[in-house]
């Protein structure tokens, strides 16, 4: 679906999430959301906060699982996704703290495998993801599933692509400070979501969106796997679909 502006597209995404949250509330059930970081979802979170403040949308029944986190990183670091999520969403809504799940970027290395297995198991035991939000990186990564990631991959430690580290360099005040690894939900983990919403704004995403939507399905552009999921919404602004 193409909207004239990123703001209009973001409002549509936020309204879709709000309607699922409210529907679940009416049924007395939880709503399980997979959340993303980066600049793309910021305007979606801003609209969710507005709906909370002005239209009484509550998040008491919402359970969240974030896609990824740099490793190693302290939760209090400027660039940590924990910090991002609190700043742009959680601090401003009424979600119970114990319902929030974000990969832990500061656990000892030998505990990562167990942490990742438990993360996937926790998503399953929460009832699975109702909706997974996704941005897209220049390499075609979703979460931090870089080129070479398999369709059946699960949550794990991954080595970041050079292009991804260049793109993150300004956040870290220099490429040499960007962590070399990250913990990411796998493509298989993401694919278990009942619905996936991929978002992209701006002309900088036009090329990768063309490859993702119209290109051959390949491990070298992991986002192309989305062509095979039964319920994906690709939400774009006019600029990001310039090459379609
Ligand atoms: C990072 C995140 C991704 C995100 C991507 C794009 O790599 N791990 O989840 O989709 O950046 O970021 P942006 O939305 O800022 O373009």
UniProtKB/TrEMBL annotation:
Gene Ontology biological process terms, A to Z: carbohydrate metabolic process; N-acetylglucosamine catabolic process
Full-protein positions shown: 14 to 257 of 637
Protein name: Glucosamine-6-phosphate deaminase
Record carries keyword Hydrolase: yes
Superkingdom of origin organism: Bacteria
Molecular function, one GO term: glucosamine-6-phosphate deaminase activity
Domain Glucosamine/galactosamine-6-phosphate isomerase: 5-227
Keywords assigned by UniProt, alphabetized: Hydrolase
